[in-house]
Amino acid sequence: MKIILDSPINKYYVQTLGMIFFPGEHFGESEETRPDAPVLSVKTVEDEGGVKTYATVELDGKSESAEYYAEFTAERTHERTLKLSIGGAVLAASSALLGYRPAWGMMIGVRPSKVASELLDAGNSKTRVKKILNTDYLVIPKKAALATNIALTEKSIVGEPSPKDCSVYISIPFCPTRCTYCSFVSYTSKRLLSLIPEYLEKLKRDIADNFAIINRLGLRVRTLYIGGGTPTILTEAQLRDLLGFITTQTDVSALDEYTLEAGRPDTINAEKFAVARELGVTRVSVNPQSLCEDVLCGVGRSHTVDEFYTAYDIAKSSGIRTVNVDLIAGLPGDNFRMFSKTMDEIIRLDPENITVHTFCVKKSAEVLRQNSHIYSARGGDVGKCVDYSQIKTEQAGYIPYYMYRQKNTVGNYENVGFSKPSYEGLYNIYMMEEIHSIFAAGAGAVGKLVDNTGNCCNKREIERLFHQKYPYEYLRDDFSASAFEEKLFEAEEAFKLDDKNAEAENE
Predict the structure, then answer these.
(1) 504 pLDDT more than 60
(2) What architecture does CATH give domain 1-101?
(3) Distances (CA, A) of 433 to 215, 351, 402
(4) pLDDT tens column, 170-192
(5) How far does CA 271 lie from the centroid of its chain?
(6) Most buried pick, 93, 231, 348, 397, via CB within 10 A?
(7) Which element (helix H / strand E) includes 298?
């Protein structure tokens, strides 16, 4: 896609807007010279009252133009006014050319509820927030209501964040097979799976280093999440060793939530879940993604529907407090009829959590090599599937408690977690809304240092800490001298500064 920009706005913002209507497009000289590449031209003009944007979209010899004016207000920054103006013009021109109006309007961020939360914090009523999302951001009413309701739910669950709170993420980047849509760091070959014993030994040292810092700083670990990959690819003995080691580092009984991601039914047995419950796990995720055999086979899932039922029964009878089930709307080969049957069946099973994702196509996913035209701006049946999931969960007494969006989702829709009251997935909220720091261990893991006072890491609000992506890199590199260690030192100094600030306020 070719972008022609005459504006002080960051080009990335305009590129991301363009991807709402042209998902799967890339940016760069090679793409710009393609004869069939769409062209988006944007020009902004400012006056004392606001910003006017002129946008033109061209495709296959056709073009549409639009202009949009956004006024400066005391409630929003200059940059946000600029983005609203550009977003309004791009949406108007693109919609006129393609005959498609995105449900989320010009909102492109990962966290659509963030804007709603900020508006609520500014003193706006629930009704006013929904109206602003609808009129300023061009979000359709039902999505504006969803974002606002989730923001309110999150506030009621989290309360006032403490600078002494944190969570821990532990990565097990191995799977029995690789799903064709997957872009996570996960490894399936026998050669790489043979690394698991060595990986676990290095991982335990990494976990110990994190908890040493956490304990030295006097932080409270609210949640712990073991994800992947598929953590239950570990044998019963390996799982017992890892979970047992964690109990030597922190009091797991004091955690608000302790999650073991057991996503693949073909890796689950009663013995593993008995170990998990014995060693403190309070939440597990058993993820069929679909209850249609043909769909599962088509996306490379190595389990059957019957294996999911068996795994789910094991989870429910294990005594573990919370069971989550993940589904994906819009998988290749799926349709509304099949998805709605899956949704109805999952609700009948009555798990404490249900998470409904929209199918997201990443550049590294195998499914792209099978079908390069899988991207869809309109989304086909996906919108109906997403709407159905939200209607049925509400009817069954579930509440939407967290939400996020990704680039390159079919139809540009959202991912939503639903729960029964008091069974919300706390880690999901803390991680997605960046409420407190996340310490991370393992290959591909990303920590987040969050400073609500503005004093952390040279006054940056969020500092992300990336571990080596691949297990063999993780095992090879000397982590003690890495940049990660240096950032943790900076974090320690920042936390000390927070303590001093708190003491000064109390004097």
Answers:
(1) no
(2) 2-Layer Sandwich (3.30)
(3) 24, 24, 9
(4) 999 988 776 555 655 545 556 67
(5) 30
(6) 231
(7) helix 293-298
Q: CA-CA distance, 391 to 349, in Å (whole number)?
A: 17
| CA nearest to 38, candidates 23, 17, 53, 60 | 60
Instruction: Name the residue type at position 118.
Output: E
Indicate the Cα dihedral angle 433, 434, 435, 440, nearest 10°: 130
Nearest Cα to Cα of residue 482 among 463, 460, 467: 467
User: CB under 8 Å to 55, separation ≥6 — which residues?
Assistant: 40, 41, 42, 43, 65, 66, 67, 68, 86, 89, 90, 92, 93
For the stretch 26-78, pLDDT in tens is 776 555 567 788 999 999 999 999 999 999 999 999 999 999 999 999 888 99
Q: How many residues does the chain have?
A: 507
Cα(250)–Cα(255) distance, integer angstroms: 9
CB atoms within 10 A of CB 192: 16
| 493 vs 402: which has the higher pLDDT | 402
**Residues 155 and 117 sit within 8 Å (Cβ to Cβ):** yes
Per-residue CA distances from 145 to 112, 113, 140, 158, 318 (Å): 11, 10, 9, 20, 37
**Best CA proximity match to 17, nearest among 76, 105, 111:** 105
pLDDT of 372 > 50? The answer is no
Q: Where residue 315 falls among pLDDT bands split at 50, 70, 90?
A: very high
DSSP state of 467: P
| Among 53, 21, 54, CA closest to 38 | 21
For 89, 108, 212, 376, 445, the CA distances from 78, given in Å and listed in that order, are: 17, 18, 43, 33, 35
Overall average pLDDT of the 394-417 stretch: 92
Phi/psi-derived region of residue 268, left when phi > 0, alpha when psi is between -120 and 50, beta in every other case: beta
Work out the percent of the chain whose per-residue pLDDT is above 70. Answer: 84
Closest by CA position to 271, among listed 259, 263, 279, 261: 279
Instruction: For the domain made up of 160-438, give the CATH fold.
Output: pyruvate-formate lyase- activating enzyme (3.80.30)
Provide the pLDDT confidence category of residue 283 given band limits of 50, 70 and 90. Answer: very high
Is pLDDT of 117 > 70?
Answer: yes
CA 470/CA 189 separation, integer angstroms: 13
In whole angstroms, give the CA distance from residue 465 to residue 66. Answer: 42
Share of the chain above pLDDT 90, in %: 61
